[in-house]
Amino acid sequence: MKLQEKFIELRSKNQGILATNFYNFETLEGVLRAAKAKNHPIILQLTKSSIDYMGLPVAYSLAKSMLEYHDVEGWIHLDHGDSYELAAKCLDVGFDSVMIDASEQPFDENIAITRKVVQLAKNYGANVEAELGYIAKLGQNKDETGFTQPQEAKEFVDATGVNALAIAVGTAHGFYDSEPKIDLELISQIGEATDATLVLHGSSGVPGKTLTEAVDRGICKINLATEIKNTFMQTLKTKLAKNDEIDLRKVFPTATSKVVELVEQKLEIVRNQK
């Protein structure tokens, strides 16, 4: 099943799907063990930084083979692709979905580059995600606002044909200094204005109750990245501080298990089964 078809199925059931970034074998293993344990589908995401770190064919092959090994229904997605060229490389290697993030460009330029990627992705039958509005990235001002407006979302989706749209409703990438104020009513309004699958970036640190209501209001895809990195590294730091073990095969599994616990919790929230 193509990812865009899965989105339609989930939306008909008022359910969401978790999209998790991975950074190495251990974080990928943790995500997939959780998905298998909960019998939930999963979207595996790679950013340009992770692709540069692991190498595109290696990262893709690792994700593909691990999905098969764990017998988990899943898709491989480029997260925050910053160029047409990167999207093209990912599609060529076999990605099921790509994101083109031109949200910091003027509205018309965002439309133009997104439309170009959508046209390319049709040749592969792949899903395309874009972003509209201001969702603070790491290091950017989280106090700045630029929420996605329903009419603009409709105009953007109609002009580009994009399958999924990451919307700005009060979240930010990375951790929060205080509980974020998510405009849940705005999610509903955007959902009424467009048929595109709605995506929530910056879910790390957002309370479970808020995520559940966001799914109720129309969010289908929820991204999780920062908490995965943090959980793995903080666990690893604690483990290493207490012993002199040099065998990584004995040290890493503890951190991987904590990632499993985290993702299992998130899957229960995001799937929103009643």
Tell me what you see in this structure.
It is a single chain. This protein is globular. It has one domain: Aldolase class I (TIM Barrel, Alpha-Beta Barrel). Helix content is 52%, strand content 15%. The chain starts with a helix and ends with a helix. 46% of the residues are buried. The longest helix is centred in the C-terminal third of the chain and has 24 residues. It is α/β, with parallel strands linked by helices and 274 residues long. About 2% of the residues have low confidence. Strands 1-2-3-4-5-6-7-8 form an eight-stranded parallel beta barrel, surrounded by eleven helices.
Brief descriptors of the model:
274 residues; alpha/beta; TIM Barrel; 8-stranded parallel barrel; 8 strands; 52% helix; 15% strand
> Which overall shape is indicated by the principal axes computed on the Cα atoms?
globular
How many domains make up the 3D coordinates? 1
Low-confidence stretches: 138-142
CATH class: Alpha Beta
**Would you identify the CATH architecture?**
Alpha-Beta Barrel
Question: What's the overall average pLDDT, rounded?
Answer: 92
Distance between the termini: 24 Å
Strand numbers in spatial order across the main sheet: 1-2-3-4-5-6-7-8
Beta-sheet strand percentage? 15-25%
Largest sheet: 8 strands, parallel, barrel
Estimate the helix proportion, in percent.
Answer: 40-55%
Q: Which topology does CATH recognise?
A: TIM Barrel
Helix/strand-derived category reads: alpha/beta
For the CA atoms, what is the radius of gyration? Answer: 18 Å
CATH superfamily: Aldolase class I
Number of strands: 8
**Tally of helical segments:** 11
Order of helices and strands: HEHEHHEHEHEHEHEHEHH
